[in-house]
Every structure is written in structure tokens, then in C-alpha cells.
Batch of 2 targets.
Target 1
Amino acid sequence: MNDHARTILNDLVGMTREIGSPEADHVVLGEGNTSARIDDGSFFVKGSGESLRTIDESGFVAVDMKRALALLDSGDLQGDELRDALLAIKKDPQAPGRPSIEVLMHAVVLQAGQAEFAAHTHTTVINELLCSDRAHRFAHERIFPDQIVLCGPDSAFVPYVDPGLPLGRAVHQSIEEYDKEYGIPPKTIMLKNHGIVVVGQSRLEVEAILAMITKAARIYSGACAVGEPVGLSRQDIERIYRRSDEAYRRRKLLRE
Ligand SMILES: [Zn+2]
């Protein structure tokens, strides 16, 4: 492993443990997974069965980007066939470990999402909304300025589909639709009855976006408890997202 890959892996381990801390309530047991791009052709992803809270360098698997994306165009593999196919996309098929079943979703969010780091969690306060009839509204409404500044003007939304190939394909479609509408990839992708995916250019950006969208979920639920949540208008969202002092605030919030 070269120095660049080692630095990426260190950052990925740090981010993953931070997200996995029990007080953050993003995941329990072996839930959730994270990834980071190594270079144009490969990325690290959490190994199957690893816990975010306790993971170390050995818990990640290097995967070939092209082979992972090609799997999305293959037939509907299941069981042993899918397991073998996931082993075959490892950069070094002889290396230990097995990529998480969500490796295809990570290939998609890093590539189509033009990101360097990604995290997928089952954050309790977010899932309270995504498992309710307000899921769609929560995903698409923006309720306060810092949510727009950090998390973008909107979220991509994915109806419930099974993990693995179906989820990888559905997430890809949701990113393409978002890109068509906004001309940029989404920073947050809401998975109905499942969880959230957050992407960023750095470990810090992913942690910041996840913290802010988690806060937004708490506020949204609180607003539901006292009345009806009132989102900002599309014009307000657009203005706040584009304004230069908000760009300055975004950098400040990210401590860049
Ligand atoms: Zn999940």
C-alpha cells in the first residue's frame, strides 16, 4: 500500500469510528458502512460483518471501481453467485475480507456522486422520519439555513428496495435524477424505511453533513410534535445555497 492509500485509510478508519460511537446513535452492532476513494480505479469499503465502532485498518477491503460498477449491469445475482461476484471485485482477490453487501451502492455514490468519502447509517432520529408517512417530505423540505448550506438544496430519495444489486441500481437512478434537476450530485440520499447515505470531499465534510442532517431530523420531528413543519420556499433555498456569504459560512462550518 502506498503512502497516499495509507493516508486515505487512516482518515476512513477515524471517520468510521467517530460515526460508530454509541452516543451518536447512527448505528448499533454491525449496522452501516463507509467507503473512501483511493484513486480513479479503486476504493476502500467496510468489510462484511465489521462494527463501525471498533473497526481498524484490517476491517476494510480495497475494491476495483470498474468491476464493481459493471456488476450493476449484470443479471440479478443472488446467494452464492452474488457472494462470489462480490469477492471477484476485490482489487486483490487473494486479500482477506469480503466487501459489505452495500459495496455496489458505495461504488455508485463515490462515482456518480463525485465524492471522495461516503457513509451509510441507520441513524435513529432520521429513520423515525424515513419509516413514517412524512419520509418523502422530510427528504425534500429544507427547514433552516445551515441545513441548506451544508447538506445542499435537496436530498435524493429512494423508495424501499432490498440491499445489494437492487439498492445499488436504485441509488444510481436517484443520483441521475437529482443531477438532471440541480446540475450537481446530492450530498444526502434518503433510503425509505432503511437509512441515509452522506457523501463528501473529505472525512470532515461527511461528518459535518451527517451531524447537520441528524439535527435537521430532530428539529423536523420536534416541529411535527408542536404543529406542522414549515419548509423554506424554493426561492429562499436557491438564494441561500448560491449566496457567497453562505459559501464562506460553509467553509467556516467545515473549518476549511
Ligand atoms: Zn443499511
Target 2
Amino acid sequence: LTEIQKNLFHLAGQFQQENTHQTEDYQEFKEIIETKRGFLKAYWCGQTTCEEKIKEETQATIRVIPFGQPEGVATHKCLRCGAKAQWLVYFAKAY
Ligand SMILES: [Zn+2]
């Protein structure tokens, strides 16, 4: 990578970090979705019915399911339904 490319890469990463919020509380999730831009990182059970409910209730949809899932995902609960989490995913509001 050239210096310029490295800087651009760094900036993009920083932007993503600053615009990514994480919560395990559905009420807080709704508030963040309403008031902030960017991505919301949250645990999800993997059920499409649950994802559809989240979309109905918050207009947020799953954008990214990262390849490298962190260890211990299953020790967390799904943001909405409280079932055992399968994935840590990124949500963003659909406009
Ligand atoms: Zn769920």
C-alpha cells in the first residue's frame, strides 16, 4: 500500500468506528436508530421472522454479517427475542 492508500483506509475505518454503536437492549437500539446515523452492532438469533419484526418496529435491516464472528456469541441473547444469539451483525436504518 502507498501512504495515501493507507491513510484512506485508516480514515474509512475510523469513520466506521465512530458511526458504529453497540447495544444489547432493544429499547436503546430503537433510540439509537432514531437519533443517530451509521451502524448498530447487535446480537441476533438468526431467525428471519425475528429480523422482519425488527424491521417492522425500527426500520432497521441487517447489512453485514461479519465473517469473523467473535468467540462467545452464543453466550449472548438476541437483541429482540432473547433467544440464544447466533450472530453479531450490523444493522442500519433503511430509508
Ligand atoms: Zn431473535
